Amino acid sequence: MKPARFAYQRAATTEHVLEALHRSGGEARVIAGGQSLVPMLNMRLARPALLVDIMHVAALSHVDDDGARLIIGAGVRQRDLEMRHDTAARQPLLAMALPWLGHVQTRSRGTVCGSIAHADPSAELPLVLTALRGEVHLRSRRRARRLPAEAFFTGMMVTARAEDELIEAVSVPAVRPGTGYAFREISRRHGDFAIAAFAAVADEKELRLAIGGVAETPKARVLPTDQGLDDALDTFAWNLEARDDLHASARYRRELVRRIGREVVLAAIRDREARALKEAT
Amino acid sequence: MTLDVHAQTVGEGGWVGISIPRVEDAALLAGRGRFIDDLGMPPGTLHAAILRSPHAHATIESIRTDAARAMPGVAAILTGTELRALTTSLVVGVKAPVECWPMAIDRVRYVGEPVAVAVATDRYLAEDALDAIEVSYAPLPAVVAPLDALRDGAPLLHEGFPGNIASDRSFSYGDPDGAFASAPHRIGVDVDYPRNACTPIETYGVVAEYDPALDAYDVLANFQGPFSIHAVIARALRVPGNRLRLRTPPDSGGSFGVKQGIFPYIVLIAVAARLAGRPVKWIEDRMEHLAGAVSATNRVTRLQAAVAEDGRILALDWDQIEDCGAHLRAPEPATLYRMHGNMTGAYAIRNLRIRNRVVVTNKLPTGLNRGFGGPQIYFPLERLISRIAATLGLDPLAVVRRNLVPADAFPYRTATGALLDSGDYRAALDVALRDGDHESLLARRAAARVEGRLYGIGYAAVVEPSVSNMGYITTVLTAAERRRAGPKNGAQATATITLDPVGSVSVHVASVPQGQGHRTVLSQVVADVFGLRPSDIRVVTELDTAKDAWSIASGNYASRFAPAVAGAAQIAATRLRERLARIAAAQLNARADELVFSAGKVFSPGNPGNAIPFTRLAATGHWAPATLPEEVEQSLRETVFWTPPQLDAPNDADEVNSSLCHGFIFDFCGVEVDRDTGEIRLDRYVTMHDCGRILHPGMVAGQITGGFAHALGAALLEEQSYAPDGSLLTGTLADYLIPTAREVPEPVILHYETPSPFTPLGAKGVGEGNTMSTPVCIANAVADALGLADIRLPLLPSRLSEALHGAEPQPPHHEARPPQATQGERTLFGRGRASVDATPEQLWAMLLDPALLARVVPGADNVRRESDTRFRAEVTLGIGPVRGRYRAEIALSDLDPPRAVTLSGSVDGALGFGRGRGRLRLVPVGQARTELTYDYEAAVGGKIASIGGRLLDGAARVVIGQFFESLAVQASGRRPSLWRRLLRLFRRRA
Fold first, then answer.
1. A37 to chain B: which residues are within 8 Å by CB?
2. How far apart are CA B440 and CA B446, in angstroms?
3. Is A248 in the same domain as A221?
4. pTM (whole model) above 0.90
5. pLDDT in tens, B341-352
6. Same-domain pairing of A166 and A188
7. Residues 260 through 299 of chain B touching chain A, CB cutoff 8 Å
8. Domains (ranges, CATH) in chain B?
9. Residue A250 forms part of a structural domain
10. The domain containing residue A30 runs over which residues?
């Protein structure tokens, strides 16, 4: 479990990062917290020629709140966001999900954007980004673009990021009045990959449920709030094309979608009502 | 767990039995432990890395090492050829013409089996060298499940084990036939006990050196014993025992039996050192450990009981099929025979039939693990008690009580030959129910059930053996074979007490602790003998076979420390005290046998004012040996070799006292199962232990809590899983799940002490019991909660879902899909279609053109045409972050130009292998379009299957999708944007 030889470059500016990615011809990888990449290097699953460390790029290390969105820079660690004083107030779903990411130790190193870049289908942050209709901010020397979460995650650990692109930030909409949120995860131990994870957003217009850990990417559906909910969850469950693995059968995952999915959307509706009450007083 | 620390308040004597702070902890808590990887190495030490088989079963056709040997820093490459030249096969535990090498010679038999060793100036370069070794394998069919191994026509692992059976023995005790014929009930269970392992936090480590002048090996390894293995290693290395110096480091980070299994690696690294001509160090990494260290056995058991109306068990009929993995390594099949004396558990059952079969399969070889054989027998036995109660409508506790060995029967000789040393099982059970508040648990269950919640209670009563009889394993041989081989028996423990010139006391034992706290307990035991404080006693536990007193039974296993080793130390200290008393008697003008050793002084009780300081007395043997009374001889050092007389070799009736001590455990617990998720919450767990005399309550609590945590892992989380093709599926700790502090609730620990009459201190072993009692206790509770007759470990919520949720409704009609291959099958199926702007003839021409094929095969370069229909290429495949280089072969067959062709492909590389075939059909649509359809099946395995199984299937689908996508792109040649869009179609359908 020793990595193959690689070169290491500590970038000082975003431009340095982009230049290195541009020159490397796909042989460079960005390293931030290293919580997924370093094990892959040690197992020799990933063998980049160059690692570009972005943790000393000041421009990437902060969270911007423009009133409508939280824009989370590539250098922001998961634990920083979790401990930030107003994360729960500005986007409750993020605050609900963050304690479920791995362990305190991994969150203290791992970054928000790193988890998005890794695109593990069981990971919480890709799920939250999908549930909230967040965006991934990509930049290369050629261009800057933003992709909605559902366009960014194209497969299991596969994304729409081009080899020369840096995930500069991710953005999620800030809390909106009249909106409720709920999150729940089923895993074998706390901190394990989710067997199924659920994030629901309920506002006046729609009830949206996103599910991670079942399909190859997180998937979201708008669900009816009437008695059609159970049928819609059943259809969603089958649509996710769950597979058997060591930890859970496909059938068990469908059961969780039907049962826990229902609990989580109802919890989001209750959360909306509770927030509405609070806003009114 | 509370630790009673009142050492400071105890004035003198009486150290044994209280929880003094562990002398080990100051260093460990400050990060100053001296583990093997912390120690300085001889100058010039090289580092080894091991190439391991990605295949469960394959013939090694060739190993090309020239490129690796030529790499900078590489000193040696060791393959099976060199190994065979320099060593002899490891001994096998049964009489059969079978070899057992520490590394594959010409055939691999499990994923993770060593295939080559690279030795280089550092571990990084050694692993680089592994990448450059090219092994050509011819895969063979694998067999994974023990029942499959027994089937006619099953793949054969060893010619010397016909039918994959290494041993098949039948035993009969009492009159089982009569009992079964006359009993009113026959009640049974079928159990498939899973594989797991104890997963110490520190992995294996070896530093080996070879001295060509002496033809001698010097090895430092975190080996745990038994040192009978020293003989096995020396024999394999073709040296006499005195040319193998085996040393252990001062600290070892847990073992639980597992570090017995390091010995094949000791042989391997010793040979590597010989080949390299320099010392070689190898530290096993976690992936190597999970794939290649050692596992407990999995076992298929059918247990039947002849039962009276009142629940009394009249006879047992055991049929056990033990799975020892790919090789029968010493001391296997000991897992099966360690419990032979106590196959009736805590019960007085006089009639037994036992059939024991040992099979080999394409899985990691097995060896010592905490509980060693106990979990495998107590799961069926205690499930049986539960089934008897359910079948006859009895309270499970009534069935337990009716069958327990009665208190007045001790020492009790079991039907199979064990001598249960002491106990009052019924009293212990009653105290457990009372102090564990069984009544309240019944009330909680009743209340939960009224509310519609799923709550159950489970019980388990077990006998915990300790201090193994070194002869029990010979029960696998027939009486005639045993007579030919000569007797093997006993459990010799050694201890040495030394006095130095300033009169301070040192203790050395050959117990090789792996974190248990032996040094602390020995300081208590010896302090009590000499009337000193534990802090006055220095205890050394590292072992050097060239210098120290040891025997084949030395080491840290079978829970033998407290009953055997601590007792031997007490005997040695007492003998030395007797010598000192004689010296003091002359000086004090008193009788030696009346002298008191207390508070650092020696005096006659009648005249305490006239006392000799202990240190001065103890130093006398150094400074004034001529003054010693003649019969004292010396007073510097006492070494004791102690073996209990009760441990005889198996007799001709195959009766064996397999262990010296037998503790008793009675557990009960309440669990609640979540109706929606199947998650199990342990509400309360009560564990009652009779482990004889308790030497250090805090450490006993630690052992029980640790055993409980291991057992909880076995019950709820852990299974070393193999796919039907033999791929290892639990290659990292993300898939092999061990309990963490969050998953382990604190058990209620109770004690009922009946000292063992057979051990010097009255202590029995306590290190393993909960691994035997707890898995089945929890399973009984879950079975009670859900009303299940059959239940398998680990108790995955997903598995319980079937019972909880009933049959799943059909999918809504429009969502119906063909069944998907599961990961467990390790075979992928898929199909897809596309319409391409080219004629079938154009497409056909492409398929036969290497240049075009190079563009079609994802990541290919250097495509070489071997024949019209066979191509080779080097390909780089990358899925997400995972990227590797592979050798690929592509063949076309069943050609039906230009309508259909079968494409077969294989890739092999460091990350794994894949094989697949697909049928491609071309149907013209109009003038210049072709409808292309394909279906395929593919199998993928190897390293990536072990560590990224989730990723693997998705990855294979993407690669296959990419192939057909680029085929379409190349064929159309002009409208890539259209094909970009088609990519999505492929992915969705493929």
1. 881
2. 10
3. yes
4. yes
5. 999 999 999 999
6. no
7. 285-287
8. 7-32+492-642 (3.30.365.10), 43-374 (3.90.1170.50), 404-469+657-808 (3.30.365.10), 826-989 (3.30.530.20)
9. yes
10. 7-53
